[in-house]
Design goal:
Layout lengths: L2 H16 L2 E4 L13 E2 L10 E5 L3 E7 L6 H11 L5 E7 H13 L3 E5 L5 E4 L11 H12 L18 H5 L6 E2 H11 L9 H11 L3 E3 L6 E4 L1 H11 L4 H6 L7 H4 L1 H12 L2 H11 L6 E2 H11 L1 H8 L5 H9 L9 H7 L2 H4 L1 H8 L22 E2 L4
Parallel strand pairs: 1-2, 4-5, 5-6
Antiparallel strand pairs: 1-3, 3-4, 6-7, 8-10, 9-10, 11-12
C-alpha cells in the first residue's frame, strides 16, 4: 500500500474522530475526495503528513509511511514533531510498521497500524505538555476559520480604508453575490479596468477582519457579519461612503487626519491574528526601531510558522524551511534572495497600513518596487 493511500485512510479516521484533519498536500493527488483540507504548517522545519486538533486545542501530528517509504526516516520525523504537538504518531501498513512499533511507543510516539483491508489499530500515548501558546495550534485555528492559505500581509493595498469598502456595498438585510458586490465596488469605489482585480484584496481584507461572511450554501453570496453591521453604522454616523473613499487620497497617516476612523480600524486590526502578533513582537523590541532581520528572527524563535507565513511568499516556503533547518539564517536576508522570497506587502502595502493606523512611525521606510528593496535598510519604528 502506497504512503498516499495510508495518508488518505488515516486522514478519514482523524476527521471522523475530531471533526477536521489537515493533510500536507505536496504530491497528493486524491485529496479532493476527502474531508481533509491541505496545510503548509511545519514542525522543526518539516511538514507533517497529517495534522488534527483533539478537543479543540490539542495538536496531533503524524507521518504516513507505505511501501514506497523509509520507515526509519519516518520515525525520525515523527520524533521531531513531538516538539510542536501534544501527540505525534507513525502510521503504516501493519506488516511493515510492526518492527518499529515498540521503539515508537517507548519513545512516546503513537502508532497507527493499517491492515490490508484498511482497518486501523490506533495507539496514542499520553499528551505531551506544551506551552499554552502553541505555534501549530495557532496556525490550525486560523485555517479552521478561513480555510485559505492567503494571509493578511499579502493584501495589496496601501490604505486600510479599502477593507471597509465591501461593507459599504453589501446591503445589511440582503445577501448579495460576490459578482454583485464586485460590480458595485468597481462602480462606486473606483476599481475599474486594470484595477478591477483589486476587488479580491478588498474581499479578503473584509473577510479576515470579520466584517463579512461567505454563504455556506452552494451559491457564492456574501453577508455582513454582526461586527460588519456595527462598523458600518459607526462609520456612516459621521462620514458618507464618498467621504470615506476620499480618505485614500490623503498622504498623511489616517490616525492624524481622521482619528475616529483610524481607531475603529485599529480595533479591527488588533483582532486579526497576524497583525496582533506583529504588534506584540514589535513591543518587545527596541522603541527606537528594529531591522527586519531582527524582527523576523525574533518571530521565528516564538512562532516559526507565523514568521514564514507572515514574511515570505508561499512559493518560497520550501526553500525558506530548508535554510532554517540548516541554521542558514543569514541567507534569508541576502538582498537577491529577499527580493525574490519576501512578500512585497511586508515592506510595502502592509507596512503602510501599519503606519496609517499608528502602529509604526511614518519614517519607517517602505518600498514599492521589489527590485529596489534592501533588507539592510528596512527599519520598523514603533509609534508611541
Amino acid at each position: 500500500m502506497k504512503s498516499e493511500r495510508i495518508q488518505e485512510i488515516v486522514a478519514s479516521h482523524l476527521a471522523d474522530e475530531y471533526g477536521t484533519a489537515w493533510v500536507h498536500t505536496k504530491g497528493t493527488q486524491a485529496m479532493g475526495k476527502l474531508r481533509a483540507p491541505g496545510h503548509h504548517i511545519s514542525i522543526g522545519g518539516w511538514y507533517p503528513d497529517l495534522l488534527a486538533l483533539r478537543d479543540g486545542d490539542l495538536v496531533i501530528a503524524g507521518v504516513a509511511c507505505g511501501e514506497d517509504s523509509d520507515y526509519l526516516a519516518g520515525l525520525g520525523r515523527a520524533l521531531t514533531f513531538r516538539q510542536g504537538s501534544h501527540y505525534s504518531f507513525l502510521a503504516g501498513e501493519i506488516a511493515e510498521i510492526r518492527q518499529f512499533r515498540d521503539t515508537a511507543l517507548d519513545s512516546g510516539l503513537g502508532v497507527i497500524s493499517v491492515s490490508s483491508d484498511e482497518r486501523l489499530d490506533v495507539q496514542l500515548p499520553s499528551a505531551t505538555n506544551l506551552p499554552l501558546e502553541n505555534d501549530v495550534r495557532r496556525e490550525l485555528e486560523i485555517l479552521s476559520r478561513r480555510n485559505v492559505r492567503r494571509r493578511f500581509a499579502s493584501l495589496s493595498f496601501n490604505h486600510p480604508i479599502h477593507f471597509v469598502a465591501p461593507i459599504m456595498a453589501i446591503r445589511p438585510d440582503t445577501p448579495q453575490t460576490k459578482q454583485e458586490v464586485a460590480s458595485l465596488l468597481m462602480e462606486r469605489w473606483g476599481f475599474s479596468g486594470s484595477r478591477s482585480e483589486a476587488w479580491w484584496s478588498c474581499f479578503y481584507g473584509a473577510l479576515f477582519l470579520g466584517l463579512i461572511r461567505e454563504s455556506q450554501s452552494g451559491e457564492e453570496t456574501l453577508n455582513l457579519s454582526e461586527l460588519g453591521v456595527q462598523v458600518r453604522n459607526a462609520l456612516l454616523e459621521r462620514h458618507s461612503a464618498a467621504e470615506l473613499r476620499e480618505l485614500v487620497n490623503k498622504r498623511v497617516p489616517l490616525l492624524d487626519h481622521a482619528p475616529d476612523v483610524a481607531l475603529v480600524l485599529r480595533g479591527l486590526y488588533l483582532a486579526e491574528p497576524d497583525v496582533s502578533l506583529m504588534v506584540r513582537i514589535l513591543r518587545t523590541l527596541e522603541p527606537t526601531g528594529v531591522g527586519v532581520e531582527k524582527l523576523i528572527l525574533r518571530t521565528l524563535q516564538i512562532f516559526p510558522n507565523a514568521a514564514v507565513n507572515l514574511f515570505f511568499r508561499a512559493e518560497e516556503h520550501d526553500t525558506v524551511l530548508e535554510l532554517i533547518r540548516g541554521a542558514r539564517y543569514r541567507e534569508l536576508f541576502e538582498p537577491e534572495f529577499s527580493r525574490k522570497a519576501m512578500l512585497q506587502g511586508v515592506y510595502g502595502p502592509f507596512k503602510r497600513q501599519m503606519i496609517h493606523l499608528g502602529f509604526l512611525r511614518s519614517d519607517s521606510p517602505t518600498w514599492s518596487e521589489p527590485e529596489k528593496y534592501d533588507p539592510g535598510e528596512d527599519l520598523w519604528i514603533p509609534r508611541g
